[in-house]
Write a structure and sequence with these properties.
With 498 residues, the protein is an alpha/beta fold. It has 3 domains: 1-105, Serine Threonine Protein Phosphatase 5, Tetratricopeptide repeat (Alpha Horseshoe); 225-306, Rossmann fold (3-Layer(aba) Sandwich), CATH 3.40.50; 318-494, Rossmann fold (3-Layer(aba) Sandwich). Helix content is 49%, strand content 10%. The protein contains 24 helices and 10 strands. It has helices at 4-16, 20-33, 38-50, 54-67, 72-84, 88-101, 108-118, 122-135, 140-152, 156-169, 175-186, 190-197, 200-204, 234-240, 243-249, 263-266, 296-299, 318-328, 353-362, 366-369, 393-398, 411-418, 430-437, 479-494; strands at residues 225-229, 253-257, 272-276, 289-292, 338-343, 378-382, 423-427, 442-446, 460-461, 464-471. A 6-stranded mixed sheet has the order 6-5-7-8-10-9, with helices on both faces. The protein has a 4-stranded parallel sheet with strand order 3-2-1-4, with helices on one face. Strand 9 (460-461) and strand 10 form a beta hairpin. It is globular, with a radius of gyration of 26 Å. The mean pLDDT is 93. InterPro entries: Glyco_trans_9 (IPR002201), TMTC_O-mannosyl-trnsfr (IPR052943), TPR-like_helical_dom_sf (IPR011990), TPR_2 (IPR013105), TPR_rpt (IPR019734).
Length: 498
């Protein structure tokens, strides 16, 4: 009968060779034979993490730490498992604990830095990632994460150097180029940025082609049928569907696949011959070319001074606008106050730790937005959906906020409500794009590490003529932003409505 040491040797050989199932079976047998085997619990947790079962990984490695609380490898890997599960505060505490026990613990400074970055603590993240890069200047992921953190901190030149250094270590890996694309786009360098952004397909391992048809890259399309399709979020679809009419103007027949929530609304976009969803493509006509919506700026050769903005390109159905105005009694009021819509939270996407962390950085609690409702001369309207809408229950009950969203079924309804608003004040969500694309004035509250599409150092948006940006001056600090909005809202109410 093999000894535990011999079983470990075989299991680790399987593990290092990538045979995770075989390794896990042996680790489990060791643990069943001796529940106090901390190493087996630790290694089984690592296997769970490699399989993407992060909650299981946390439980198993936590058990190992409970048995041996001074093992820095256990503690550091527990931090990594917590980070992968999106539990950043706990991950940061465990990385700090590992470093307190072993200041030069390999890999821990970089992990701590990336956890801090995910938690929105950008300045601390840069410091720790810089330290990690100094300890191991040839570590690909450290340089990559340092470049991202420096970019989010607005230190673009340093960020570019770090990302280029990462790319030189792994020229076959598209991730540094994708992050470099975002950096270039945030600076308004569309020529290089949009070209690099096409590397996202290499990074995801997917193909931009649909049904084997070639991707449109800007060539003549007169007489051709082109299928456009969404690949990312609702806001992205709303922003880049502006290119569909331009493609039709070039003589193409345009087909479009959109999210179900947008189907009714985007039927108003000029130049679309057929609009459908992925659930309803059976009768889709044959097509010659295809193009994801996010690749249209590249195909059209867009530059920051030639962004197709102009007049609104989305129009809510007129009968729906009338119906909502009647339902809310807005068609019968005269001498009314300034009607302002509010959105304070995005989609939390709790199933995706990275997206959830980003949403935490872009969203604000309703309590922080609530003083805006008290600005004299406004009628406040909620456009908030999801769990965050519950935060405003008391304000709705007190009559300081009108909430029509229970009757909303899709974005056509939201657009119809917004059509009667004088202004929309929102964090960076799809509603910002919806309101601006329909021509409503929008004041956007933007996090410090803003999305590339809002660029840096601007109070306006070349994408939307009716949008004004209110940016954080420091990561996570919203109070000065809300104060500026309150000041400008008060000034607006003191004058004429827009």
């Amino acid at each position: 009968m093999a000894t535990i040491e011999e079983a470990y040797a075989v299991a680790i050989d399987h593990h290092q060779a990538g045979r995770l199932d075989e390794a896990a079976v042996i680790y489990r047998r060791i643990l069943d034979a001796d529940p106090d085997q901390a190493h087996a619990s630790h290694l089984l947790g690592i296997v769970a993490g490699q399989r993407g079962r992060h909650a299981e990984a946390v439980a198993l490695i936590s058990a190992a730490v409970a048995r041996d609380g001074l093992n820095t490898a256990f503690i550091g890997n527990l931090g990594a498992a917590l980070k992968a599960a999106g539990r950043y505060d706990e991950a940061i505490r465990h990385f700090a604990r590992a470093l307190a026990l072993e200041p030069e613990a390999r890999g821990v400074p970089g992990n701590l830095g990336s956890a801090l970055a995910a938690d929105g603590r950008i300045g601390d993240a840069v410091r720790w990632l810089t330290r990690a890069a100094a300890l191991d200047p040839g570590h690909f992921e450290t340089l990559l994460n340092l470049g991202i953190a420096l970019r989010d901190a607005g230190r673009f030149e340093e960020a570019e150097k770090a990302l280029e250094a990462a790319e030189s270590l792994r020229p076959d890996h598209p991730h540094p180029l994708c992050e470099l694309a975002v950096l270039k786009l945030a600076q308004g360098d569309f020529e290089e940025g949009l070209a690099l952004y096409e590397k996202r397909w290499d990074y995801t391992g997917q193909s931009a082609a649909v049904s084997g048809k070639p991707v449109w890259r800007g060539e003549d399309v007169r007489g051709k049928t082109v299928l456009l399709y969404y690949e990312q979020g609702l806001g992205d679809t709303l922003q880049f569907v502006r290119y569909a009419p331009l493609l039709a103007d070039r003589g193409a027949r345009v087909l479009l696949i959109v999210q179900p929530e947008l189907r009714r609304l985007l039927a108003s976009v000029r130049g679309i011959d057929r609009l459908t969803t992925y659930d309803d493509t059976a009768g889709l006509p044959d097509f010659d070319l295809c193009c994801p919506l996010m690749s249209l700026p590249f195909a059209f050769g867009t530059r920051i001074d030639r962004i197709p903005a102009g007049k609104p390109y989305i129009t809510p159905p007129a009968d729906l606008v009338t119906a909502w105005a009647e339902r809310l009694g807005w068609d019968r009021r005269t001498g009314r106050r300034l009607r302002v819509g509010f959105v304070w939270s995005g989609n939390p996407r709790r199933h995706d730790p990275t997206s959830h962390a980003m949403d935490r950085r872009r969203s604000v609690p309703f309590a922080m937005m609530e003083p805006l409702l008290a600005v004299p001369g406004i009628e406040a309207v909620s456009l908030q959906v999801g769990d965050a809408a519950e935060q405003a229950r008391a304000a709705v009950a007190a009559g300081t906020l009108v909430d029509p969203m229970a009757g909303v079924t899709d974005f056509a309804d939201t657009a119809a409500i917004a059509a009667a608003l004088d202004l929309v004040v929102t964090v960076d969500t799809s509603v910002a794009h919806l309101a601006a694309a329909t021509g409503r004035p929008v004041w956007l509250l933007s996090r410090y590490d803003a999305c590339w599409r809002w660029f840096r150092g601007r109070g306006d948006s070349p994408w939307y003529p009716t949008m004004r940006l209110y940016r954080q001056d420091a990561p996570g600090v919203w109070e000065p932003v809300v104060a500026r909005v309150a000041r400008d809202l008060a000034a607006l109410c003191g004058g004429s409505t827009p």
